[in-house]
Amino acid sequence: MAGRRAIDKLAPPSPHRRALLRLCAALAAPLVPHAPLHAQTIFTGELAAPRPVAVLFPDLPEPVRKVFTDIIGGIEEQLHQRVQAWPLAAALDPAELGAALRRQGVRVIIALGRQGLKVAEALDPALGLVVSGISSLPDGDRHTAICLSPDPALLFTRLRSLAPGVRRVIVVYNPQHNDWLLRLAREAARLHGLELAALEALDLGAAARLYQSAFAAADNRRDALWLPTDPTTVDETTILPLVLREAWNRAVPVFSSSFLHVRKGALFALYPNNTELGRNLGNLATAMMTAEPPPRGLLPLREVYAALNLRTASHLGIAAGPAVQRSFQFLYPEP
Fold first, then answer.
1. 3-state DSSP helix/strand/coil percent for the chain, to nearest 5?
2. Cα 139–303–181 angle (5° rounding)?
3. Which of 182, 202, 84, 60 minimizes the C-alpha distance to 133?
4. What single string gives the DSSP state of each residue in 304-320?
5. How many angstroms separate the CA atoms of 46 and 180, rounded?
6. What are phi and psi of 157, to 5 degrees?
7. Closest alpha carbon to 97 in 24, 164, 36, 42
8. CA–CA separation, 244 vs 237, rounded Å?
């Protein structure tokens, strides 16, 4: 983001940024003990006429809740109508929830986060289902989903604009989480004239060893390192500090699929534009109600903002003048 004015309009304000780590944990958290079933309309607090689309999302406090309300706002803008928004604060009875959805004439559910998906999977399988708010799905072919992992093609485009001399992208990944994403990355790398050095690691120890050997052999004039959203190979406690320290010492560009990594030293990252993501989810929900619903499978995130670390860019000798800065929605440190 170029300056304070853009932060308020485009990227999560400072309290929201501090809450993003809590959000990532909460999306995968188990449901809490039973509480009364209730639906709410985010903007009015009322249930109105029957609506064909319902949104299930984790019931979290502000500022994290704003992530979901922004997504829901985008869905409603695309549908040109209110949706039923169900905050999932409890282990709801699927039969009770299903009956409530039938009374409201729901035909499609948009499930946000693993909580939303878990509840949606227990409902009537005849209902259309669109999934988001997750980074990956091991059984992704069962669902129509937009994941929170940015499209590798967008990441590589941004990389080439900042560091045109890069010829090889190194990535350490767990195929159990990101095999689908690496299939996209290989094709994107080919189209961008990049070599993709994809290294598989099934545990933290293997990931650490692969990073160490990759840095030892890296050429900072032609190599860059990509940090995907991967709980195994991009562990925030052990792996990330190691990678960012080595990258700084060896002047190797690191780019990420996580906004938080830019503040910790990554060169740049792409992160969700939640309102635009909501609009695309609204499009998929509309398609679900047609004679030819969209195919099942995981889609990468293409509705993104971009963040740039100016200190890291300077350290790497990358010129980040006003024109470059204007192409990012968040700059760290703020100019």
1. 40, 20, 35
2. 35
3. 60
4. EEEEEEHHHHHHTT---
5. 40
6. -60, -45
7. 36
8. 12
Write the single-letter amino acid at 138. Answer: P
Neighbouring CB atoms inside 10 A of 3's CB total 11
Structure tokens at 248: 């700084």
Cα–Cα distance between 64 and 309 in angstroms, integer? 24
Q: Which of 275, 279, 332, 335 is nearest to 306 (CA)?
A: 332
Going by pLDDT thresholds of 50, 70 and 90, the confidence category of residue 1 is very low
- What is the four-CA torsion angle of 196, 159, 264, 13, rounded to 10 degrees? -130
Strands 304-309 and 330-332: parallel
The per-residue pLDDT for 276 is 98
Distance spanning both ends of the chain, measured CA to CA: 10
Q: Kindly report the backbone phi and psi dihedral angles of residue 80, in degrees, each rounded to the nearest multiple of 5, phi listed first.
A: 60, 35
Q: Which two tokens stand for residue 83?
A: 């949706």
Nearest partner of 331 among 282, 259, 281, 275, judged by Cα: 259
Residue-wise pLDDT for 168-192, tens only, equals: 999 999 999 999 999 999 999 999 9
**Rounded CA separation 203/173 (Å):** 10
Residue with tokens 């922004």: 70
Which residues is 298 bridged to in the sheet?
145
